[in-house]
Amino acid sequence: MNRMNVRILVHRIPVETPVRTSFGTMYDRPSIAIRIEDGDGHVGWGEVWCNYPSVGAEHRARLLESAVLPLAGESGLLDEPEALWEALSAKLRILAIQAGEPGPLAQCIAGLECALQDLAARRAGKPLHEHLSQGSGRSVAVYASGINPHGAAQTAARAVAAGYAGCKVKVGFDGALDRLNLHEVRDVIGERIALMADANQAWSADEAIAFASDVRETGLLWLEEPIAHDQPDADWARIARETGVVLAAGENFSSWNDFETLPEKRSLGFLQPDIGKWGGLGQGLRAARKAEATGRQFCPHWLGGGIGLLASLHLKAAAGAKSGYVEVDFNKNPMRSHVSQSVFDTLSDGRVTLSESAGLGDLDPVIGDFAGAIVMQKEIAIG
Question: Where does the Mandelate racemase/muconate lactonizing enzyme C-terminal domain lie (predicted)?
Fold first, then answer.
């Protein structure tokens, strides 16, 4: 195992139009990038989920520096990303309980795992998807996400014109506006393009049932997180049973037991793990295999920066399933778009084609273009 140098970069990218959800608004686009370089000059990149709360990015960067990376350096497992994820999750379990921070710590471990997977792929000279699953293809279906409640139809029209396979509209705000948006978006995009709705846990079970019944004729492919993740499994199942709508969830799953049991208990048709929130790429691929074995579509969730988006695309390619999509935030985010531009230049008929470069590709130059947006930088040597 080589000694490794780790750089933590926190960026904040100003945006003109805030990104709204039912539980909060992003007024800028934060990201935490982890850059790992080994003694031979190979580099791997990962990204930690940090959208909420608004001060969350800097806090997670400090957790990485103070709690996660020192233990990673002592582990002897830097060359084994999945084993390291298991070891760190176990080692930090009590701290997570005591501090009341299981989420932020899990997110830091997940982002580190992704960076080490990218590093391993770069060392092997293979694209990340090929490193994860030999023989995997490079073509991935994508849909446009994060469509805000105001101007939804116009945004959806731009997404379809750009070549996306589907559009996901944010709901959970005003009932009348939500219903109007879905009808107008369906009218604009036509019947061929997939339409999804994301309530971000906004409703009660009764409210979700009423809403899904009212918009049944829009032909939703799925309704995402209609109620809170911590609500009874029976409520989720009742929504699916009484409305016939197909439910989607997974971004807030935080254990393998969740992935093992909740899809069946909650009548989920689409599984949406977020590799920057929990599990990284190793557990994400495991979830993909589970979804395929149980007849569910695997649709990685991502609403962050460009590194995590590229990694999510490679995960979907490694999973190999012909059905399902990767989420692509359609809101403006200059850094995310710049980092992933070479892939999205290939967007056609709802699909992108991944590069044959090793790992995620050489990201140093494109991330370096945003040095002026760095609000925090940490350096630590481990191993």
Answer: 149-246
By the 8 A CB rule, do 308 and 302 touch?
yes
In a structure prediction context, what are the per-residue pLDDT tens digits for the chain, which is 383 residues long? 579 999 999 999 988 888 878 777 888 999 999 999 999 999 999 999 999 888 899 999 999 999 999 999 999 999 999 999 999 999 999 999 999 999 999 999 999 999 999 999 999 999 999 999 998 999 999 999 999 999 999 999 999 999 999 999 999 999 999 999 999 999 999 999 999 999 999 999 999 999 999 999 999 999 999 999 999 999 999 999 999 999 999 999 999 999 999 999 999 999 999 999 999 999 999 999 999 999 999 999 999 999 999 999 999 999 987 789 999 999 999 999 999 999 999 999 999 999 999 999 999 999 999 999 999 999 999 99
Q: Is 40 exposed, middle or buried (0-12, 13-18, 19+ CB in 10 A)?
A: exposed
What predicted TM-score, i.e. pTM, was given to this entire model?
Answer: 0.97
Domains and CATH numbers, the chain: 4-126+363-382 (3.30.390.10), 131-353 (3.20.20.120)
